[in-house]
Design a protein that fits this description.
This protein is an all-alpha fold and 233 residues long. The chain has 2 domains: 76 residues, Winged helix-like DNA-binding domain superfamily/Winged helix DNA-binding domain (Arc Repressor Mutant, subunit A, Orthogonal Bundle), CATH 1.10.10; 145 residues, Up-down Bundle (Four Helix Bundle (Hemerythrin (Met), subunit A)), CATH 1.20.120.530. It is built from 12 helices and 2 strands. It has a two-stranded antiparallel ribbon.
Length: 233
C-alpha cells in the first residue's frame, strides 16, 4: 500500500514527464498503433492527472513527429503509409551521409569517445535483445555522429527524422534478430566509426549510405514476409 502511494506521488510530481515517457514508449513499440486516436480526457483519467500535463506531453510528442494534431483538433499517433517509405529513406540517406561526412572532418577527440561509448551501449542492448533500448541507443549513436559535425541545423533535422523512424526500426530489429545473428547486427556501425576516426570523409559518407540501404533492405524483407503493401504502419 505504501509502495503504491509512493508511486502515485512520484507520478503526480513528475506528471508531464512520466506521461511523455510512457506514451512515447508505447508509440515506439507499436503498443499504440499508427493512426490511433489520443483523447486528453481519457489519458488524464488513465494517469490520474489533470489535462494540463497530458497536453504538455502530447505537445512534446507532436514536436517529435510522433503525434499529429488534425485541423479539427483530433490528436492521433502519427500514421506512416508504406507508400511514403521511399521518401523517408531518401531523406534519411541524404542527412545520414551529410552528418557522417561532417563528423569525419570536424570531430574532436571527445566526440569520437562519445560515438564509441554510444555504440558500446547499443551493443549491450543488442546482446540482451532489448528492442526498446536498441532503438533509443541506435538513435543516440547516430546523434553523437551528427553532433560531432557541429552543425545544429543538421542535428535538429536528423534528430526528428530518426525519431519518426524508430517505429520502423523496432520492426526491423524484430526481423533481423529472428533471421540473422545478433553479432552481425551489432557490427553494423563499425565501418562508419572507423572512417570517421580516420577522417576519411568520402569513405564515411559511403559507409553511411550503405548503412541506410541495409536498413531499407531489411525493413522491406520484413514487410514482404509479414505485411501487405496496402497496410498502413
Amino acid at each position: 500500500m505504501a509502495e503504491k502511494k509512493e508511486l502515485d506521488t512520484g507520478v503526480r510530481r513528475h506528471g508531464g514527464r512520466y506521461i511523455y515517457d510512457e506514451l512515447r514508449k508505447q508509440i515506439l513499440t507499436l503498443k499504440l498503433k499508427p493512426g490511433e486516436q489520443l483523447d486528453e480526457i481519457s489519458l488524464a483519467a488513465q494517469f490520474g492527472l489533470s489535462r494540463s500535463p497530458v497536453r504538455d506531453a502530447l505537445a512534446r510528442l507532436t514536436a517529435e513527429g510522433l503525434v499529429t494534431i488534425l485541423p479539427n483538433r483530433t490528436t492521433l499517433v502519427t500514421p506512416f503509409e508504406i507508400e511514403n517509405f521511399p521518401n523517408y529513406i531518401s531523406a534519411l540517406d541524404l542527412l545520414q551521409r551529410a552528418v557522417s561526412r561532417l563528423a569525419a572532418t570536424q570531430h574532436r577527440p571527445e566526440d569520437l569517445l562519445a560515438i564509441r561509448r554510444a555504440d558500446d551501449a547499443y551493443l549491450e542492448a543488442v546482446t540482451s535483445g532489448d528492442f526498446q533500448a536498441m532503438s533509443e541507443l541506435n538513435k543516440r549513436f547516430h546523434l553523437a555522429i551528427a553532433q560531432a559535425g557541429r552543425n545544429p541545423y543538421l542535428v535538429s533535422a536528423y534528430e526528428r527524422l530518426l525519431g519518426e523512424g524508430q517505429r520502423l526500426l523496432h520492426l526491423h530489429f524484430d526481423h533481423v534478430i529472428s533471421s540473422a545473428s545478433t553479432h552481425r547486427l551489432g557490427r553494423d556501425h563499425d565501418e562508419i566509426i572507423g572512417f570517421i576516426a580516420a577522417r576519411d570523409a568520402d569513405a564515411a559518407e559511403k559507409a553511411a549510405h550503405e548503412h541506410t540501404m541495409l536498413f531499407q533492405r531489411r525493413f522491406l524483407e520484413y514487410m514482404h514476409q509479414n505485411l501487405t503493401a496496402s497496410i498502413s504502419i
